[in-house]
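To assess whether ligand presence alters the predicted conformation, the chain was also submitted together with pyridoxal-5'-phosphate. Input:
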Amino acid sequence: MNDAGNALADKQTPLSAGDNVRGAFDVEAVRADFPVLHQEVYGKPLAYLDSAASSQKPRQVIRAMDEAYETYYSNVHRGLHYLSQTCTDHFEAAREKVRRFLNAEKAEEIVFTRGATEAINLVAASYGRKFLKAGDEIVLTTMEHHANIVPWQLLREQTGVELKVAPIDDNGDIRAEDVIDLIGPKTGMVAITHISNALGTVVPVKQIVAAAHEAGVPVLVDGCQAAPHIPVDVRDLGADFYAFAPHKLYGPTGVGVLYGRYDRLESMPPYQGGGEMISRVTFEKSNFKKPPHRFEAGTPSIVEAIGLGAAIDYVETVGREAIAAHDARLLAYATRRLSEIEGLHIVGQATDKAAIVSFVTDWAHAHDVGTILDRAGVAVRAGHHCAQPTMDRFGLSSTARASFGIYNTEAEVDQLVDALHMVREIFG
Ligand SMILES: *Cc1c(COP(=O)(O)O)cnc(C)c1O
């Protein structure tokens, strides 16, 4: 991390919403920053309730990316020339913004990947193949996204590790003790979600990390749903690895974040080989760079990382506490309104929950519910949400899921509820 990067990281993009909403959250000012929201679909105002799958992008992010391409775009880290140095400064400034966002100790602990999925695969492949052996156990929860299941199954095929899965109850709640009970002398890694994308359950990660560390076991946290909803402090949590998806945090696709405690990263071999990650290559041997560059083979997602930096600026200007409070208000309102609908059942009623509401109805299959809602302008997701074991736990193949972001309103919840009454009339 160079000084220029630090200076750029402190420079905030001017914001319309942020100026208005710090302290007092003004959702209309936020909405004004998201061009895509202001449209009709099938002649109905769009109610975008699918932010858990991917969020929309504020103008500030789109502009930062346009500006990069229009004024200073070049490859990073390689050039002596002006554009390359400028672009490298912006790219490294984004890394510093991520560091600050997660309260990591240093920017070298932030690895840019192509997505959250790649971040988890990186840990499973690199840490897993070096440090884990046949019979070692990976502790997961029932609520994991496939991205935090399948990489460990691939590792199981290669090394013979075993998977242990902590249960959840009928409300979708998880007790820290149920995870901690699975940690024993053979545990090699605890890999758990921070917030379930299918149920919204918030997992007591800090307590689990403390217990795992007492047993000398590292913890990877899948923070894809936590990063957009609640303040995250990796040092307070104590996590060894923390992965999140920028495209769910109002940033672009094509880039992902892996935080790794520096000593962990330093002990790990490269995940992929190529340019940028070596200090010297001969045909006999290559020497690898230090983290994070050791894990960033090839040309990275340059402009996407810069867009992520702008998204973090945006979120921080609006205020992470204000966002968490807004989400909690919407969740409470949506839960109350949906509970009033006869024949609709909310799946996942954990005591600590983020702004995600999964539901099924007595009248129609989730996919049919989703299709009718779409015709009423309401965008929800219907399916297994890349969490089939979670669905299996409830004896379901799919649910409809409304998920809320920074820009959603109670009026949109009302639109959802009205549309659901329509579905009930059609099928019920
Ligand atoms: C979205 C999501 C992922 C995967 O993120 P990608 O963007 O598909 O890489 C992993 N875990 C959770 C909890 C998610 O919500």
